[in-house]
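Quick illustration for those who missed Monday's session on complexes.
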Amino acid sequence: MNVAVVGTGYVGLVTGVSLSDIGHTVTCIDIDNEKILKMQQGISPIYEPGLSGMMIKNINEGRLYFTSDHKQGFESAEVIYIAVGTPEREDGSANLSFVEQVAKDIASHAIRDTVVVTKSTVPVGTNDKIQSIIDKNLMYPVNIEVISNPEFLKEGSAIYDSFNGDRIVIGSNSEEAASTIEEINKPFGVPVFKTDIKSAEMIKYASNAFLATKISFINEISNICERLGANVEDVANGMGLDKRIGDKFLNAGIGYGGSCFPKDTKALIQIAGNVEYDFELLKGVVRVNQKQQGLLLEKLSERIPDLKGKRIAVLGLAFKPNTDDMREAASLVVTEELINVGVEVVAYDPIAMDNARRILNDKVQYADSVEEAVSGSDATLILTEWDEVRNVNIGVFKSMNYPLIIDGRNCFALEQMKDNNIEYHSVGRPSVSSKNGHVLLS
Ligand code: UDX
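Prediction with uridine-5'-diphosphate-xylopyranose bound:
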Protein backbone atom coordinates (compact mmCIF):
# COMPACT_ATOMS: atom_id res chain seq x y z
CA MET A 1 0.00 0.00 0.00
CA ASN A 2 0.99 3.63 -0.38
CA VAL A 3 1.52 5.15 3.02
CA ALA A 4 2.42 8.66 4.22
CA VAL A 5 3.75 9.32 7.72
CA VAL A 6 3.63 12.88 9.07
CA GLY A 7 6.28 13.62 11.69
CA THR A 8 9.67 11.95 11.82
CA GLY A 9 10.37 11.83 15.55
CA TYR A 10 10.92 8.47 17.25
CA VAL A 11 7.40 7.25 16.60
CA GLY A 12 7.00 8.53 13.03
CA LEU A 13 10.41 7.52 11.74
CA VAL A 14 10.34 4.04 13.23
CA THR A 15 6.75 3.53 11.98
CA GLY A 16 7.64 4.68 8.46
CA VAL A 17 10.87 2.72 8.20
CA SER A 18 9.41 -0.53 9.56
CA LEU A 19 6.28 -0.24 7.32
CA SER A 20 8.59 0.12 4.31
CA ASP A 21 10.55 -2.90 5.46
CA ILE A 22 7.45 -5.12 5.32
CA GLY A 23 6.82 -4.04 1.71
CA HIS A 24 4.75 -0.84 1.76
CA THR A 25 5.76 2.27 -0.17
CA VAL A 26 6.23 4.94 2.47
CA THR A 27 6.76 8.69 2.28
CA CYS A 28 7.82 10.32 5.54
CA ILE A 29 6.94 14.00 5.84
CA ASP A 30 8.47 16.58 8.15
CA ILE A 31 8.57 20.38 8.15
CA ASP A 32 12.30 20.33 9.02
CA ASN A 33 13.95 20.45 5.61
CA GLU A 34 17.48 19.97 6.91
CA LYS A 35 16.40 16.76 8.63
CA ILE A 36 14.66 15.58 5.45
CA LEU A 37 17.85 16.08 3.39
CA LYS A 38 19.82 13.97 5.86
CA MET A 39 17.20 11.22 6.01
CA GLN A 40 17.10 11.06 2.21
CA GLN A 41 20.75 9.99 2.46
CA GLY A 42 19.90 7.36 5.06
CA ILE A 43 21.19 9.40 8.00
CA SER A 44 18.94 8.88 11.03
CA PRO A 45 18.41 11.94 13.25
CA ILE A 46 18.14 9.67 16.30
CA TYR A 47 20.24 6.87 17.73
CA GLU A 48 18.16 3.72 17.58
CA PRO A 49 19.73 0.28 17.14
CA GLY A 50 19.05 -1.13 13.64
CA LEU A 51 17.29 1.99 12.35
CA SER A 52 19.94 3.45 10.00
CA GLY A 53 20.62 0.09 8.33
CA MET A 54 16.92 -0.47 7.72
CA MET A 55 16.54 3.09 6.35
CA ILE A 56 19.36 2.66 3.85
CA LYS A 57 18.10 -0.75 2.71
CA ASN A 58 14.57 0.48 2.01
CA ILE A 59 15.67 3.76 0.39
CA ASN A 60 17.90 1.74 -1.96
CA GLU A 61 15.09 -0.69 -2.73
CA GLY A 62 12.78 2.22 -3.67
CA ARG A 63 10.21 1.85 -0.90
CA LEU A 64 11.13 4.70 1.44
CA TYR A 65 10.98 8.42 0.63
CA PHE A 66 11.32 11.66 2.59
CA THR A 67 9.84 15.06 1.79
CA SER A 68 8.94 18.36 3.44
CA ASP A 69 6.16 18.93 0.90
CA HIS A 70 2.83 17.74 2.33
CA LYS A 71 1.04 17.91 -1.02
CA GLN A 72 3.65 15.69 -2.64
CA GLY A 73 3.67 13.34 0.33
CA PHE A 74 -0.11 12.93 0.35
CA GLU A 75 -0.46 12.60 -3.45
CA SER A 76 -0.61 8.84 -3.70
CA ALA A 77 -1.29 8.00 -0.04
CA GLU A 78 -4.09 5.55 0.72
CA VAL A 79 -3.23 5.65 4.40
CA ILE A 80 -1.79 8.63 6.31
CA TYR A 81 -0.23 8.20 9.76
CA ILE A 82 -0.17 11.18 12.13
CA ALA A 83 2.95 10.93 14.29
CA VAL A 84 3.71 14.51 15.28
CA GLY A 85 4.55 15.53 18.84
CA THR A 86 2.02 16.30 21.56
CA PRO A 87 4.26 18.22 23.99
CA GLU A 88 3.27 18.89 27.57
CA ARG A 89 1.70 22.25 28.35
CA GLU A 90 2.55 24.01 31.59
CA ASP A 91 -0.63 22.67 33.25
CA GLY A 92 0.28 19.08 32.30
CA SER A 93 -2.21 18.81 29.44
CA ALA A 94 -1.15 17.76 25.92
CA ASN A 95 -0.57 20.49 23.34
CA LEU A 96 -2.47 19.33 20.26
CA SER A 97 -1.66 22.19 17.90
CA PHE A 98 0.67 20.06 15.71
CA VAL A 99 -1.91 17.29 15.39
CA GLU A 100 -4.64 19.78 14.52
CA GLN A 101 -2.44 21.39 11.87
CA VAL A 102 -1.81 18.00 10.24
CA ALA A 103 -5.59 17.38 10.20
CA LYS A 104 -6.03 20.66 8.29
CA ASP A 105 -3.20 19.76 5.88
CA ILE A 106 -4.80 16.39 5.19
CA ALA A 107 -8.14 18.05 4.53
CA SER A 108 -6.53 20.45 2.04
CA HIS A 109 -4.62 17.83 0.10
CA ALA A 110 -6.54 14.55 0.22
CA ILE A 111 -7.69 13.68 -3.28
CA ARG A 112 -8.93 10.12 -2.64
CA ASP A 113 -10.63 8.13 0.11
CA THR A 114 -8.04 7.77 2.86
CA VAL A 115 -7.65 6.12 6.24
CA VAL A 116 -5.97 8.50 8.71
CA VAL A 117 -4.18 6.71 11.54
CA THR A 118 -3.35 8.59 14.72
CA LYS A 119 -0.11 7.29 16.26
CA SER A 120 0.56 10.36 18.39
CA THR A 121 -0.52 9.98 22.00
CA VAL A 122 -3.66 12.10 22.23
CA PRO A 123 -6.25 12.60 25.00
CA VAL A 124 -9.46 10.64 24.83
CA GLY A 125 -11.81 12.31 22.36
CA THR A 126 -9.08 13.81 20.15
CA ASN A 127 -9.61 11.42 17.24
CA ASP A 128 -13.23 12.53 17.02
CA LYS A 129 -11.95 16.10 16.97
CA ILE A 130 -9.45 15.26 14.21
CA GLN A 131 -12.28 13.65 12.22
CA SER A 132 -14.43 16.75 12.50
CA ILE A 133 -11.54 19.13 11.62
CA ILE A 134 -10.88 17.09 8.48
CA ASP A 135 -14.55 16.79 7.53
CA LYS A 136 -15.06 20.53 7.99
CA ASN A 137 -12.03 21.55 5.90
CA LEU A 138 -12.13 18.98 3.06
CA MET A 139 -11.28 20.46 -0.34
CA TYR A 140 -12.42 17.48 -2.42
CA PRO A 141 -15.45 15.17 -2.07
CA VAL A 142 -13.61 12.22 -0.54
CA ASN A 143 -14.21 10.02 2.49
CA ILE A 144 -11.64 10.20 5.29
CA GLU A 145 -11.86 7.71 8.16
CA VAL A 146 -9.82 8.54 11.27
CA ILE A 147 -8.70 5.65 13.47
CA SER A 148 -6.61 5.37 16.61
CA ASN A 149 -3.54 3.13 16.57
CA PRO A 150 -1.44 4.02 19.63
CA GLU A 151 2.26 3.28 19.70
CA PHE A 152 3.86 1.13 22.39
CA LEU A 153 7.47 0.99 21.18
CA LYS A 154 10.29 1.47 23.64
CA GLU A 155 13.25 3.64 22.76
CA GLY A 156 16.42 1.66 22.35
CA SER A 157 14.51 -1.38 21.08
CA ALA A 158 11.99 0.35 18.82
CA ILE A 159 12.79 -1.61 15.65
CA TYR A 160 12.79 -4.90 17.53
CA ASP A 161 9.47 -3.94 19.18
CA SER A 162 7.85 -3.19 15.79
CA PHE A 163 8.34 -6.80 14.79
CA ASN A 164 7.93 -8.37 18.24
CA GLY A 165 5.40 -6.16 20.04
CA ASP A 166 2.84 -7.64 22.43
CA ARG A 167 -0.14 -6.13 20.61
CA ILE A 168 -1.31 -3.70 17.98
CA VAL A 169 -4.35 -1.72 19.18
CA ILE A 170 -6.79 -0.46 16.58
CA GLY A 171 -9.63 1.83 17.63
CA SER A 172 -12.17 2.58 14.94
CA ASN A 173 -15.81 3.38 14.23
CA SER A 174 -15.48 1.75 10.82
CA GLU A 175 -15.02 -2.01 10.38
CA GLU A 176 -13.58 -1.41 6.92
CA ALA A 177 -10.94 1.11 8.03
CA ALA A 178 -9.96 -1.16 10.92
CA SER A 179 -9.51 -4.08 8.52
CA THR A 180 -7.34 -1.96 6.21
CA ILE A 181 -4.98 -1.18 9.09
CA GLU A 182 -5.04 -4.76 10.33
CA GLU A 183 -4.07 -5.89 6.82
CA ILE A 184 -1.24 -3.31 6.57
CA ASN A 185 0.26 -4.58 9.80
CA LYS A 186 -0.18 -8.30 9.08
CA PRO A 187 3.44 -8.96 8.01
CA PHE A 188 4.65 -7.84 11.49
CA GLY A 189 2.93 -10.92 12.90
CA VAL A 190 1.90 -9.04 16.07
CA PRO A 191 -1.52 -9.83 17.65
CA VAL A 192 -4.20 -7.23 16.90
CA PHE A 193 -6.75 -5.95 19.42
CA LYS A 194 -9.68 -4.04 17.96
CA THR A 195 -11.93 -1.71 19.91
CA ASP A 196 -13.71 1.62 19.69
CA ILE A 197 -11.74 4.86 19.28
CA LYS A 198 -12.06 6.20 22.84
CA SER A 199 -11.04 2.90 24.43
CA ALA A 200 -7.98 2.70 22.15
CA GLU A 201 -6.96 6.22 23.17
CA MET A 202 -7.40 5.24 26.82
CA ILE A 203 -5.41 1.98 26.45
CA LYS A 204 -2.29 4.01 25.65
CA TYR A 205 -2.57 6.31 28.67
CA ALA A 206 -3.67 3.54 31.02
CA SER A 207 -0.74 1.31 29.94
CA ASN A 208 1.89 3.99 30.46
CA ALA A 209 0.31 5.09 33.75
CA PHE A 210 0.26 1.50 34.98
CA LEU A 211 3.92 0.94 34.09
CA ALA A 212 4.86 4.21 35.80
CA THR A 213 2.88 3.03 38.83
CA LYS A 214 4.87 -0.22 38.92
CA ILE A 215 8.11 1.79 38.94
CA SER A 216 7.02 4.23 41.66
CA PHE A 217 5.67 1.32 43.69
CA ILE A 218 8.95 -0.60 43.64
CA ASN A 219 10.85 2.62 44.33
CA GLU A 220 8.81 3.15 47.50
CA ILE A 221 9.36 -0.48 48.49
CA SER A 222 13.11 0.09 47.92
CA ASN A 223 13.11 3.05 50.30
CA ILE A 224 11.46 0.93 52.97
CA CYS A 225 13.89 -1.95 52.27
CA GLU A 226 16.81 0.40 52.89
CA ARG A 227 15.45 1.31 56.30
CA LEU A 228 14.76 -2.32 57.22
CA GLY A 229 17.93 -3.85 55.80
CA ALA A 230 16.08 -5.92 53.15
CA ASN A 231 17.22 -6.26 49.54
CA VAL A 232 14.77 -4.85 46.97
CA GLU A 233 16.22 -6.95 44.15
CA ASP A 234 15.32 -10.14 45.95
CA VAL A 235 11.96 -8.67 46.91
CA ALA A 236 11.22 -7.81 43.26
CA ASN A 237 12.38 -11.22 42.07
CA GLY A 238 10.22 -12.93 44.65
CA MET A 239 7.21 -10.79 43.75
CA GLY A 240 7.78 -11.29 40.02
CA LEU A 241 7.43 -15.06 40.33
CA ASP A 242 3.71 -14.45 40.84
CA LYS A 243 2.43 -14.36 37.25
CA ARG A 244 -0.30 -11.90 38.24
CA ILE A 245 2.43 -9.42 39.16
CA GLY A 246 5.04 -10.29 36.53
CA ASP A 247 8.78 -9.79 36.79
CA LYS A 248 9.11 -6.80 34.42
CA PHE A 249 9.32 -3.14 35.36
CA LEU A 250 10.20 -3.81 38.96
CA ASN A 251 13.72 -2.36 38.86
CA ALA A 252 14.12 0.18 41.61
CA GLY A 253 16.15 3.22 40.60
CA ILE A 254 16.16 6.99 40.42
CA GLY A 255 12.71 7.26 38.88
CA TYR A 256 11.31 7.09 35.38
CA GLY A 257 12.14 9.63 32.67
CA GLY A 258 11.86 9.86 28.91
CA SER A 259 9.40 11.34 26.49
CA CYS A 260 6.36 9.29 27.55
CA PHE A 261 5.88 8.41 31.22
CA PRO A 262 6.34 11.88 32.76
CA LYS A 263 4.20 13.52 30.09
CA ASP A 264 1.49 10.87 29.84
CA THR A 265 0.99 10.44 33.59
CA LYS A 266 0.44 14.18 34.00
CA ALA A 267 -1.83 14.27 30.94
CA LEU A 268 -3.99 11.44 32.31
CA ILE A 269 -4.38 13.25 35.63
CA GLN A 270 -5.53 16.24 33.58
CA ILE A 271 -7.87 14.12 31.42
CA ALA A 272 -9.47 12.68 34.57
CA GLY A 273 -9.72 16.17 36.08
CA ASN A 274 -11.57 17.38 32.99
CA VAL A 275 -14.35 14.91 33.77
CA GLU A 276 -14.21 15.83 37.44
CA TYR A 277 -12.38 12.75 38.58
CA ASP A 278 -9.49 13.03 41.00
CA PHE A 279 -6.92 10.39 39.97
CA GLU A 280 -5.34 10.22 43.43
CA LEU A 281 -3.23 7.12 42.83
CA LEU A 282 -1.56 8.56 39.75
CA LYS A 283 -0.87 11.86 41.51
CA GLY A 284 1.02 9.84 44.11
CA VAL A 285 2.97 8.04 41.39
CA VAL A 286 4.15 11.37 39.97
CA ARG A 287 5.06 12.72 43.43
CA VAL A 288 7.04 9.58 44.29
CA ASN A 289 8.94 9.88 41.02
CA GLN A 290 9.96 13.45 41.78
CA LYS A 291 11.06 12.46 45.27
CA GLN A 292 13.05 9.51 43.96
CA GLN A 293 15.13 11.70 41.65
CA GLY A 294 16.35 13.66 44.68
CA LEU A 295 17.37 10.70 46.84
CA LEU A 296 20.77 10.22 45.22
CA LEU A 297 21.90 13.68 46.17
CA GLU A 298 20.55 13.16 49.69
CA LYS A 299 22.72 10.04 50.02
CA LEU A 300 25.73 11.89 48.65
CA SER A 301 25.23 14.81 51.03
CA GLU A 302 25.00 12.43 53.97
CA ARG A 303 28.46 11.10 53.08
CA ILE A 304 29.99 14.40 51.97
CA PRO A 305 28.22 17.16 53.92
CA ASP A 306 30.20 19.96 52.28
CA LEU A 307 30.04 19.28 48.56
CA LYS A 308 31.35 22.66 47.42
CA GLY A 309 34.40 22.27 45.18
CA LYS A 310 34.24 18.46 45.26
CA ARG A 311 34.82 16.61 42.00
CA ILE A 312 31.95 14.19 41.33
CA ALA A 313 31.86 11.75 38.41
CA VAL A 314 28.47 11.15 36.79
CA LEU A 315 28.17 7.96 34.75
CA GLY A 316 25.25 7.89 32.32
CA LEU A 317 23.15 10.85 31.22
CA ALA A 318 20.49 9.36 28.89
CA PHE A 319 17.11 8.62 30.52
CA LYS A 320 17.84 4.92 30.03
CA PRO A 321 20.47 2.80 28.20
CA ASN A 322 20.66 2.29 24.43
CA THR A 323 19.29 5.70 23.58
CA ASP A 324 20.74 9.19 23.17
CA ASP A 325 17.48 10.68 24.44
CA MET A 326 17.84 13.18 27.27
CA ARG A 327 14.18 14.14 27.54
CA GLU A 328 13.08 14.19 31.20
CA ALA A 329 16.25 12.31 32.13
CA ALA A 330 16.80 12.10 35.89
CA SER A 331 20.40 13.13 35.15
CA LEU A 332 19.21 16.64 34.33
CA VAL A 333 17.68 17.05 37.79
CA VAL A 334 20.67 15.47 39.56
CA THR A 335 23.38 17.42 37.70
CA GLU A 336 21.48 20.69 38.16
CA GLU A 337 21.32 20.06 41.92
CA LEU A 338 25.03 19.19 42.02
CA ILE A 339 25.96 22.36 40.15
CA ASN A 340 23.79 24.43 42.49
CA VAL A 341 25.78 23.27 45.51
CA GLY A 342 29.08 24.10 43.81
CA VAL A 343 30.17 20.63 42.70
CA GLU A 344 32.60 20.14 39.83
CA VAL A 345 30.70 17.60 37.69
CA VAL A 346 32.57 15.35 35.27
CA ALA A 347 30.09 13.42 33.14
CA TYR A 348 30.33 10.49 30.76
CA ASP A 349 27.70 8.78 28.62
CA PRO A 350 28.49 6.35 25.78
CA ILE A 351 25.93 7.82 23.34
CA ALA A 352 24.07 10.84 24.73
CA MET A 353 27.02 13.25 25.12
CA ASP A 354 26.11 15.44 22.12
CA ASN A 355 22.50 15.84 23.25
CA ALA A 356 23.66 16.43 26.84
CA ARG A 357 26.04 19.17 25.70
CA ARG A 358 23.16 20.97 23.98
CA ILE A 359 21.27 21.12 27.28
CA LEU A 360 23.96 21.36 29.95
CA ASN A 361 26.43 23.41 27.87
CA ASP A 362 29.66 24.05 29.78
CA LYS A 363 28.05 23.72 33.21
CA VAL A 364 29.65 20.28 33.47
CA GLN A 365 32.88 18.77 32.16
CA TYR A 366 32.63 15.94 29.65
CA ALA A 367 34.93 12.92 29.84
CA ASP A 368 35.70 10.54 26.97
CA SER A 369 35.47 7.37 29.04
CA VAL A 370 34.40 5.95 32.40
CA GLU A 371 38.08 5.91 33.39
CA GLU A 372 38.56 9.61 32.63
CA ALA A 373 35.37 10.59 34.47
CA VAL A 374 36.12 8.77 37.71
CA SER A 375 39.82 9.52 37.88
CA GLY A 376 40.55 11.96 40.71
CA SER A 377 36.89 12.21 41.72
CA ASP A 378 35.60 12.31 45.30
CA ALA A 379 32.55 10.20 44.49
CA THR A 380 30.93 8.50 41.49
CA LEU A 381 27.21 8.68 40.81
CA ILE A 382 25.65 6.15 38.43
CA LEU A 383 22.56 7.47 36.68
CA THR A 384 22.09 5.16 33.66
CA GLU A 385 22.73 1.42 33.64
CA TRP A 386 24.71 1.24 30.38
CA ASP A 387 26.43 -2.13 29.75
CA GLU A 388 29.68 -0.18 29.48
CA VAL A 389 29.19 0.90 33.10
CA ARG A 390 27.97 -2.48 34.36
CA ASN A 391 30.91 -4.29 32.77
CA VAL A 392 33.61 -1.78 33.59
CA ASN A 393 36.84 -3.09 35.08
CA ILE A 394 36.29 -2.38 38.78
CA GLY A 395 39.97 -1.43 39.02
CA VAL A 396 39.16 1.95 37.44
CA PHE A 397 37.55 3.09 40.68
CA LYS A 398 40.96 2.84 42.38
CA SER A 399 41.88 6.09 40.62
CA MET A 400 39.26 7.99 42.64
CA ASN A 401 40.38 10.15 45.55
CA TYR A 402 38.26 7.91 47.72
CA PRO A 403 36.32 4.88 46.40
CA LEU A 404 32.73 5.99 47.04
CA ILE A 405 30.02 4.97 44.56
CA ILE A 406 26.39 6.00 44.81
CA ASP A 407 24.56 3.88 42.29
CA GLY A 408 21.07 4.93 41.22
CA ARG A 409 20.63 1.85 39.04
CA ASN A 410 21.96 -1.10 41.02
CA CYS A 411 24.65 -1.92 38.43
CA PHE A 412 26.98 -3.92 40.67
CA ALA A 413 26.73 -6.93 42.92
CA LEU A 414 27.29 -6.07 46.59
CA GLU A 415 29.93 -8.84 46.91
CA GLN A 416 31.90 -7.34 44.03
CA MET A 417 32.11 -4.00 45.82
CA LYS A 418 32.98 -5.62 49.14
CA ASP A 419 35.78 -7.64 47.52
CA ASN A 420 37.22 -4.49 45.97
CA ASN A 421 36.98 -2.44 49.13
CA ILE A 422 34.67 0.16 47.59
CA GLU A 423 32.13 2.06 49.65
CA TYR A 424 28.92 1.45 47.79
CA HIS A 425 25.38 2.78 48.25
CA SER A 426 22.72 1.57 45.84
CA VAL A 427 18.91 1.60 45.73
CA GLY A 428 16.99 -0.53 48.22
CA ARG A 429 19.96 -2.73 49.09
CA PRO A 430 22.26 -2.75 52.12
CA SER A 431 25.22 -0.37 51.86
CA VAL A 432 28.77 -1.68 51.58
CA SER A 433 31.36 0.15 53.61
CA SER A 434 35.03 0.24 52.68
CA LYS A 435 37.45 -1.66 54.92
CA ASN A 436 38.36 1.56 56.64
CA GLY A 437 34.74 2.02 57.65
CA HIS A 438 32.72 5.10 56.80
CA VAL A 439 35.32 7.83 56.60
CA LEU A 440 33.43 11.11 56.56
CA LEU A 441 34.78 13.24 53.77
CA SER A 442 34.44 16.97 54.18
C1 UDX B 1 7.75 3.82 27.40
C2 UDX B 1 6.83 2.59 27.28
O1 UDX B 1 7.53 1.43 27.75
C3 UDX B 1 6.39 2.41 25.85
O2 UDX B 1 5.49 1.32 25.74
C4 UDX B 1 5.72 3.69 25.37
O3 UDX B 1 5.37 3.60 24.02
C5 UDX B 1 6.64 4.88 25.57
O4 UDX B 1 7.07 4.96 26.92
P1 UDX B 1 10.31 4.39 26.87
O5 UDX B 1 10.01 5.79 27.32
O6 UDX B 1 11.09 4.20 25.63
O7 UDX B 1 8.93 3.57 26.66
O8 UDX B 1 11.13 3.70 28.05
P2 UDX B 1 10.95 2.51 29.10
O9 UDX B 1 11.88 1.43 28.74
O10 UDX B 1 9.54 2.15 29.27
O11 UDX B 1 11.53 3.21 30.43
C6 UDX B 1 10.94 4.42 30.92
C7 UDX B 1 11.66 4.90 32.16
O12 UDX B 1 11.38 4.03 33.25
C8 UDX B 1 13.18 4.96 32.06
O13 UDX B 1 13.65 6.15 32.65
C9 UDX B 1 13.65 3.74 32.84
O14 UDX B 1 14.92 3.91 33.40
C10 UDX B 1 12.57 3.64 33.92
N1 UDX B 1 12.40 2.29 34.45
C11 UDX B 1 11.92 1.29 33.65
C12 UDX B 1 12.69 2.03 35.77
O15 UDX B 1 13.13 2.92 36.53
N2 UDX B 1 12.50 0.77 36.27
C13 UDX B 1 12.01 -0.24 35.51
O16 UDX B 1 11.86 -1.36 36.04
C14 UDX B 1 11.73 0.03 34.16
